[in-house]
Amino acid sequence: MADQSQLNNLTITIIILCFSFQSLSSAAESHLTVDFYSKSCPKFLDIIRETITTKQISNPTTAAAALRLFFHDCFPNGCDASVLVSSTAFNIAERDSSINLSLPGDGFDVVIRAKTALELACPNTVSCSDIIAVAVRDLLVTVGGPYYEISLGRRDSRTSKSSLVSNLLPLPSMQISKLIDQFSSRGFSVQEMVALSGAHTIGFSHCKEFTNRVNPNNSTGYNPRFAVALKKACSNYKNDPTISVFNDVMTPNKFDNMYFQNIPKGLGLLESDHGLFSDPRTRPFVELYARDQARFFKDFAGAMQKLSLHGVLTGRRGEIRRRQLPEEEDTDDEEDIDDEDDIDDEVASTLLLQVSQSRQKQFRKREEKSDKNQPKRVKKQNIMKLNIDDFSEETLRSIEVWYKDELDPQDIFGDNEVTKQFSKPIKKQLMSSDVDKDQCRLMLSKEQVKEKMLPFLDESEDPVKGVDVSVYGPDGTVHEMKFKIWNGDKTPVLTSGWKQFVADNGLVMTSNFITVWMFRHIKTRNICFAIANNSFPLKKKSSR
Questions:
Q1: Is 72 a catalytic residue?
Q2: Which of 58, 77, 333, 453 has the most crowded CB, counting CB atoms within 10 A?
Q3: Residue ranges for the binding site for substrate?
Q4: Which residues are noted in the entry as substrate-binding (predicted)?
Q5: What is the pTM of this model?
Q6: Per-residue pLDDT tens for 48-59?
Q7: DSSP 8-class letter at 260
């Protein structure tokens, strides 16, 4: 009897807890209204609409980028703009978790443009989370999607931790049962999950997310001719991880129900796309939306409204964040470079697109400026995400000395037959994206490259198109690479042979710090780089 009484008490406790959580959610939603800014910022909607229209016209993948950003912000822990927060020396934020590294930069850029305009019109009034929600809705309308009401009054999260989004976002290779469980845990039905999957009617995916399943000779769900085209489009993705393919190869820039029409024909791109049609729990909704676009629009709009209310913060539970993004994003009015030359004609003829590098956040500039509130030591180092927990105090002092030390490259490379003039150095700590075998390319500070290296280039050497360079390692070994400034976000990178350079020199993330110089070869007159490497020991983790 005692056991039964305890069980009954436990059941009552669980019910009360569940009711409490539901009450908190309902209480938060009750503070949201459609006209929340009608008095405090009457031009709110006009400013958003003007900003997103300009951005979408100049960069047609903005709608898809913002939609994905919105989902990655809302789905794990609620719509609180935590995905916008930058990492610091003491914390790795959500945006730098592995699953968020591929978020396209255009999504971040359209938000910061809107936030900048709104701060000028209505200082410290509109939250970043409200901006994302409305911007995504309006962007979807510009590409043919449904209009739906957005309740406003969200507040922004004060924290953002990479660890809080681990395993909470769907993966392209995830099985349908796992997807259903994930969505169900957040209160979404199977039908709502399928409707939200229709977001794949716009946007693109990296080749590495699906090529392992593409085989024209087996039954993996791909149309054989489509599989051949995918193999061809992605043939070089290991050397160039930026290669991507549209999720909807028929109408990639139009929000419609073509995604659902494609799946039964074997034209789905991701494993999860094929799973929606093969699983009896989701197939009826795929077939419904394939034949009835109006029904898809209605259900998608309802699911988006529901998602926009997930885990919102109101009142004192959040804040109006005034500076939601680092200065790494382009916020000026400089015209973006035309990307049409990046489209391969033969691939485009099969309705596949190698999406321009400018559309991907994983290739955004990683040399973030330190926040003003960080310790002076870290601020002076200007090394992104230098986590003091990784190093002992003695090692941190050594890193500081290394950063301040003005190295003479002639002392390291010492070859007057190669050059007599080096650029000023760029120093950085290697991060995961610099050494990861799938992403492997060295990303350099945009501001420092502009100041220290671009003056070395002749007019005929266009880094946007790519410049072939020779890179001298610490031991004098030369690697042939390409120096390129990606379109749109204008991030400078060393690519192609960088992967082999990492392997030959045993470079690893966190503990390796490099110094990079540019120079012009005294004989060939070709642009070259010299790279010196320093390794600092990580702090030994204490065993419990």
A1: yes
A2: 453
A3: 170
A4: 170
A5: 0.60
A6: 999 999 999 888
A7: H
